[in-house]
Amino acid sequence: MKIIYGSFLGFTYKYVILLLLFAGSFISAQATTHTITVQNFFFSPTAITINLGDTIKWQWVNGDHTTTSLTIPPGATPWDHDISNDPGNTSFKYKPNVLGTYNYKCTPHFSMNMQGSFTVACAVASVSISASGPTTFCSGGMVSLSKSSSSGSFASYQWKKNGLNITGATNASYSATVTGSYTLVVTNSCGNSATSNNISVTSNPTPKPKITPAGPINMCQGETATLTANTANNIIYQWSKNNNTIAGATNKTLIVSSAGSYKVKETNSITGCTKTSVAVVVNITCKELPEDAILSAYPNPTSDYFIINTSVFENSKGYVNLYDLTGKLLQSVVIESETTEVGKDLPGGLYLAKIELNGEIKQIVKLMKQ
User: Fold this and answer.
1) In the chain, where does the domain assigned CATH 2.60.40.10 lie?
2) From CA 246, how far away is CA 181, in angstroms rounded?
């Protein structure tokens, strides 16, 4: 705020100019400058009260004058400056740093009683804060809090969360990213402090989606894989393949039969917070066998061991790898003849025998041990 005093035809006038400096979404604190006009043979106004931290400015109107300190408080800095139409002398600013009354004069016209005074008092501090946007958001978001109104200028700022100082938060604004009750404490040049209104900020957690396959995700044509998303309260699921939404795929589990990159997006139905999982890539790795290839296992089911017909791959340095339904490798046998025996020491259950050649799955045979 800037206040200008003057006189015309014996009447005293006062202009009040508000200087609002916008920085982002908040108004920056500015000290008040009080202007005293110097003209004819008087200062206008002759007496004024200001707050500590404010500035006095003498402004030339006409004549040749000075502003010279007379009696000032102990510890204050004296001054003596010409006020005239000469370049560099049309105005003079003085910022008092001691409380009390300051008397000054115009030296060449002191005999004509051209003098004035100003009193420096201690202002009562007050401040309020506001938010630049919504104060409830999802984790990773933020809201800017700033000083929206105040009385006077301040020597220091300190933001608090839940009544405790926030380290390093000593500006007129603060970006809040976590849940809490925020206030701003300001201190003016006199040492008077004030605490603002509080603003409650809520940062809701985002879901943590994760996909767990039930078994192998490298499979043959015609087979399926089951993908399961993690469980949480109030979650809505949406599956996608190759970043394209799968219509109707809104359950916790998804059964897939084709190759692709699968993801699940989880949304909290209460907060609206959402997040998409890391992709699980399903591959179709088996290649078709020649038309004359005959692959079989016998006896199947059996209570002893299985005989796999591997005549097509004889002397190919291939393997018969036996897996359980979780994808755990249980046996690996080199194909050395027309038949390969597997599963003799395994307990009863369902198994998958995969014919693998040069790291490539050629065929899968389902086996049942009794």
Assistant:
1) 127-204, 211-284, 297-369
2) 42
Structure tokens at 363: 């065929």
| Predicted structure pTM score | 0.56
Residue ranges of the chain that CATH labels 2.60.40.420: 2-121
CATH topology of domain 297-369: Immunoglobulin-like (2.60.40)
> Tokens 């603003």 identify what position?
199
In the sheet that holds 253-256, the strands lie side by side as 211-214, 225-229, 253-256
Q: What is the pLDDT of the chain when averaged over all its residues?
A: 87
Could you give the CA distance from residue 239 to residue 275 in angstroms, rounded to a whole number?
12
Are the beta carbons of 32 and 152 closer than 8 angstroms?
yes
Q: Measured in Å, how far apart are the chain's first and last C-alpha atoms?
A: 93
Third-level CATH fold of 2-121: Immunoglobulin-like (2.60.40)
CATH architecture for segment(s) 211-284: Sandwich (2.60)
- The dihedral over CA atoms of 6, 9, 11, 14, expressed in degrees to the nearest 10, equals -30
The HSE-up count of residue 257 (CA atoms within 13 Å, CB side) is 3
Pick the CATH number of 127-204 from 2.60.40.640, 3.90.190.20, 2.60.40.10, 3.30.70.2690: 2.60.40.10
**What pLDDT band is residue 83 in, cutting at 50, 70 and 90?**
very high
Q: Give the CA angle between residues 186, 192, 196 to the nearest 5°.
A: 35
Query: Residue 262 pairs with which residues in a beta bridge?
Result: 241, 280
Q: Which residues, 6 or more positions from 184, have their beta carbon under 8 angstroms from its beta carbon?
A: 127, 129, 145, 147, 157, 158, 159, 160, 174, 195, 196
- Please compute the mean of the pLDDT values over residues 137-164 and round it to a whole number: 92
Spell out a b/e string for 30-66, using b for 16 or more CB atoms within 10 Å of the CB, else e: ebbbbbbbbbeebbbbeebebbbbbebbbbbbebebb
- Name the residue among 150, 287, 277, 132 with its Cα closest to residue 199: 132
What is the C-alpha to C-alpha distance for residues 69 and 112, in angstroms, rounded to an integer?
A: 17
